[in-house]
Design a protein that fits this description.
Protein Transport Mog1p, Chain A; 3-stranded antiparallel beta sheet; 36% strand; globular
């Protein structure tokens, strides 16, 4: 079977990293400045922690695409149309730039929905989803010149997916992804984090909050 999964992920990541390349040019500078601010930051937290409001997140609900997910704050919609070997694809991306949020442990949170031509990609018609996801993951890792750190099969309801962790620039950052193929619809979650802050609770909260909901008929 042609590995069409890698086409969407390859181009998706290419778009994301081109749009957000400043994250990685500033990470090293940011990390150096962080060290010098640690002591003052502790003092500020101790003095003003009782004034901080509860950590309220933002629920993004897309009835059009059939999902909802919780972000630390309201994300920005960044749709993108791309040309591929199987025709034009639309990346329906929502991105939250957390690099500007000093209290956040992550640099970026993203969710993307892409619909393939049903005649080309459909999970219900595929004999082996492993082949599809293998191409998708390998294409994504290659696109960022990264190193695959881990991969596992996951499930959300009756739908099978994959969770992967990718090293970016030899330990500079970690990219985490969860992806699900529902019929001809690809759903993908992604976070980018400084390696030293990997395994933080915000990644888990974001990833675990994702849910499928009934798709609203927009043709009514």
């Amino acid at each position: 079977m042609p590995q069409y999964g890698c086409i969407e992920l390859y181009l998706y990541l290419k778009v994301v990293f081109l749009r957000n390349s400043t994250f990685f040019t500033l990470i090293e500078f940011k990390m150096k400045k962080q060290i010098g601010k640690v002591f003052m930051g502790v003092v500020v937290v101790l003095l003003f922690s009782h004034f901080v409001k509860p950590n309220e997140w933002f629920w993004l609900e897309s009835k059009q695409h059939g999902y909802k997910v919780e972000f630390p704050d309201k994300p920005t919609e960044r749709p993108q149309r791309i040309k591929s070997a199987i025709g034009e694809l639309k990346l329906n991306m929502f991105i939250y730039d957390a690099s500007k949020a000093p209290q956040d442990d992550n640099l970026m949170y993203m969710v993307n929905y892409t619909e393939y031509p049903d005649s080309v990609v459909n999970a219900d018609k595929m004999e082996n989803l492993d082949v599809f996801f293998r191409g998708a993951i390998d294409g994504a890792v290659k696109n960022v010149n990264g190193k695959l750190l881990s991969e596992k099969i996951i499930e959300l309801g009756k739908y099978e997916g994959r969770e992967v962790k990718v090293d970016f620039r030899d330990g500079l950052a970690v990219i985490r992804m969860r992806m699900f193929l529902v019929q001809n619809k690809m759903y993908m979650l992604q976070t980018i984090t400084e390696t030293s802050k990997d395994f933080n609770k915000s990644i888990t909260r974001f990833m675990d909050s994702f849910q499928f909901i009934p798709i609203e008929n927009t043709n009514k």
